[in-house]
Amino acid sequence: MLRTKNCGELRKENVGETVALCGWVSKVRNLGALVFIDLRDRYGVTQLSLTPEMYEKYHLRSEYCLRVEGEVILRSSPNKEMDTGEIEIDVKDINVFSSSANPPFIIADKTDALEDTRLKMRYLDLRRPILQKNLQIRAKTVSSMREYLEENGFLEIETPTLIKSTPEGARDYLVPSRLKPGTFYALPQSPQIYKQLLMIAGMDKYYQVARCYRDEDLRADRQPEFTQIDVEMSFVEREDVLLVIQGMLKKAFKDVLNVDLKDFARLTYAECISKYGSDKPDLRYTLYLHDLDEIFKNSTFALFNNVHIKGFKVDGYAEHCSRKMQDEDARLLSDYHLHAPLYIKKLNGELTGSVIKNLSQEEIDSLVKEFELKDNDVLVLDFNSDYENLSLGLGALRKTYASRANLIDENVYEPLFVLDWPIFGRENGEIVSLSNPFTRPKDEHVKYLYEDPTKALSYAYDTVINGIELSSGSLRIYDAKVQERIFELLNLSEEEIKAKFGFFVDALKYGTPPHGGFAFGLDRLVMIFAHTDNIREVIAFPKNLQAACPMAQAPSKVDDSALKILHIKTVDEEKDE
Amino acid sequence: MLRTKNCGELRKENVGETVALCGWVSKVRNLGALVFIDLRDRYGVTQLSLTPEMYEKYHLRSEYCLRVEGEVILRSSPNKEMDTGEIEIDVKDINVFSSSANPPFIIADKTDALEDTRLKMRYLDLRRPILQKNLQIRAKTVSSMREYLEENGFLEIETPTLIKSTPEGARDYLVPSRLKPGTFYALPQSPQIYKQLLMIAGMDKYYQVARCYRDEDLRADRQPEFTQIDVEMSFVEREDVLLVIQGMLKKAFKDVLNVDLKDFARLTYAECISKYGSDKPDLRYTLYLHDLDEIFKNSTFALFNNVHIKGFKVDGYAEHCSRKMQDEDARLLSDYHLHAPLYIKKLNGELTGSVIKNLSQEEIDSLVKEFELKDNDVLVLDFNSDYENLSLGLGALRKTYASRANLIDENVYEPLFVLDWPIFGRENGEIVSLSNPFTRPKDEHVKYLYEDPTKALSYAYDTVINGIELSSGSLRIYDAKVQERIFELLNLSEEEIKAKFGFFVDALKYGTPPHGGFAFGLDRLVMIFAHTDNIREVIAFPKNLQAACPMAQAPSKVDDSALKILHIKTVDEEKDE
């Protein structure tokens, strides 16, 4: 190595040593009689002390890449903010590996540049310590999870990424075939079918850190290519899989954040909807939703007839709950086609709220008792004939109030398994699928597939931390009869089954083991660890919201000759329509 | 877990235990009074002992997937070939998870099926113990290399796979963009540019197990998508990188094969050509090529005028070197446009061979001395005006004789670094590039870039084991002046540089560190570990030689509507031409 030490490791104990460091000029302070330079590498920053003659001789400027040799000396005024703040290097010799043009933005955590400028020169952007740290967190996260899986007997097996296009789900990215004119490969949206085939193949325990692709319109937290930690195992019950998920996450939180994650809470999907109004509830705060139908079952208030009524209480918030907030609440709930909320406040021992006059004393007493209403508490109520919709609307409002009332502790992690998901729902009277067709119904619910499919719950499970869905998965169907019934309920003909699931359904006929698995969205997990809401801050070379790379200028036009050998041509949209 | 033990772990010590095993029916032996079943999983095979009643009750057939409970008992006649051969399970209870259709080929290491049939039902093919073992070797190999790299401070960083198409090298796979009509992404042939950008970004030590793509006509050892263990590091000299390669491979050989690999031999490219006639010589046997120009410099033999003359000796092989072999030799060398070899044999103390009569006694004596010719040795000689071509031809013949004379020990591993590669060659008087344009010339050879570029050697290095190239890499240019000179020698205009290397050349202007790296072909390494010549035996779901997947039927036709939103259409070749 051209260096003997890195820029993050020298301490008081090294004083007197002669060392060689390599790195980039991060900051220059020219005091006239002496020049101080901060030298930066992946590991940290070390202060160099140079004579003005040396500084001028080498024309040192920002982002020049250097090697220096010198002696480690004590600083006269230590910098306690820096790991290496007790020492500096008395530079004896400098070798400039390469000079640098003037960077168009500041290479520091706080930068002034637009994101597209930063993405265009990502190689400079990535020199910022915050991004260096994020990529290290990402590497550490994957490494920790691999370690857990390999210690537990999982084999990493690579599945193909040039696969058959299926008409299901999100749009596939397509890849024209040169050797077979007129045909296309697809890039995988997930390795789902392949990992199930590996279980049928007897591989027993599989994992893969898998690149996946979805040609969807991008949102802030989506990328056209993304990474999934994908796991599947045979001869398991649900509990076996949950313990693997919990074990992986506990280890990752410990390894990356040094946080001891507690055992995961468990709630059914129905409980989540009822109590939190969300299928990924944030357990860091209470504000539980209460079902109030029982209290108002004999209500004379017209709006409360033939509807469900729910509400939550915000402790000590009555005085803060302003007219303006209530207007915002109404707007939020209108997205759910819900009536504006009704408020009941207890202020100076008095209950106030426009709804009060419509309620009986018994109803009011029951409400106060139900919520243990204290002075300065506020109740937020709403009603709707659709129970789930009412719950989801109030769930969204619950989040809003948690944040308004400052109830969210950013340093607390509340992990949760959401269990017992419905397999089918009903839309306009029609049965619709709510899960992939291979999700296994609970044994005791298989009968509902023949009686009332919407009552059938599955062995599916999501992992949620602080309201963020981190993984989802399920046990899979391995019984051909159950599989047939599911297809029947989906109104699939044999031809359609063949076209949609073809070789996979064939494979199921050859001794399929009971199996199940899950997949983690790596980007999202790293975003939690890195405390960022921007997915592009945890990916080395991300695409922008137009699915383009401003640096490499991808996608781009290619030569017609390249298209010709692929047997395709581009179509001018206007002319074609 | 539905099992308490797996099918590979029970021993004499477990006798008396009640266990539950899960697996597939591999073999049934019905002895009338008793039925023996081999139950197979990823971990091994365990013998079950059943009553005929149980066997019939469950209709057990090949590849049925079961759970059994029973007692571990001693076998009356142990099977020493099996790890579990001392015991069997006295089955008390059976649960058939799923039955199996009759597999169309035998699920055993020796199978009768054609490869395309096996690929079509790969989920059954992968149940064969040999393939289960190969995938485990593959997982172990990657895991070992990751461990080495992470212990040595390398960060795994993912680079994008939807990138810009470049007109260089092999053909790119293209991916049409939906959001930007008429444009395409390319799938990467390697992460080369991105890993160099990561060094410019200061990431210091990078690795990635990277999926790469080449749309080339397939050979037996090629796949359209393949996996590369890709490494790059900053502030290094060549020796630093070589030690990482050596360290990784030593650890992998130990972890996977329990082989202690010796320190790697080092030869220059020139030495390899001269002594072995190959840029990836197999060091497991001698048969060194000797340069004989000096001996024949005054030869009166017309064929030996104005040519280079080389040869090798095969010890004790004179009697075996038949007419038929010599015909084969001539055919092989004609591929190199070389004259059929000349043979000199020593048999019963006499030298024989048609060429003898053309040689002087002094030349003959020198030859005998040069090769230390003993009784029953044979010399194989040839000549050509092109030294490299002559060497390569004889190098190919050397391999043939090593195999004929049975000189190759399959259990020996001879690792080698090939160093000092030429950067430029000459073809029809024109200077042509022999390496990628970012390969760094040796410091003391930079001057040749201005005098005679074909004399300039680089800091490139290949790793070769037993004649197989496992990795290649180099230090990279970080000096803008050297880079400019290389482009000049390649006759690239500024516009061409911009079009071909664009943003990467810009990036080089911002303080590029000295850096270098390498990439391992994972498939090839696993082929060595698995002792197979067939790349499809070390990949879970490979493509066939038509780049197609017979199982998933990929590539396939897609709906016109899917093409329409991608702004492309397929072109009927006949009509279009």
Give the CA-CA distance, first to last residue of chain A.
61 Å
Q: What is the CATH domain class of the domain at 285-408 in chain A?
A: Alpha Beta
- Poorly predicted segments of chain A: none
In the CATH hierarchy, the architecture of the domain at 285-408 in chain A is 2-Layer Sandwich
Strand order of the largest sheet of chain A: 6-9-10-22-21-20-17-11
Average pLDDT metric of chain A: 94
Q: Would you give an account of this structure?
A:
Two copies of one chain form a homodimer. The first copy, chain A, has 577 residues and is of the alpha+beta class. Among the domains of chain A are: 12-98, OB fold (Dihydrolipoamide Acetyltransferase, E2P), CATH 2.40.50; 285-408, Gyrase A, domain 2. Helices cover 27% and strands 25% of the residues of chain A. Chain A contains 15 helices and 23 strands. In chain A, the strands form five sheets. Chain A has an eight-stranded mixed β-sheet, sandwiched between helices. In chain A, strand 7 (174-176) and strand 8 form a beta hairpin. Chain A is globular. Chains A and B meet through strand 1, helix 3, helix 4, strand 6 and strand 7 of A and strand 1, helix 3, helix 4, strand 6 and strand 7 of B. Strand 23 of chain A pairs antiparallel with strand 23 (568-570) of chain B.
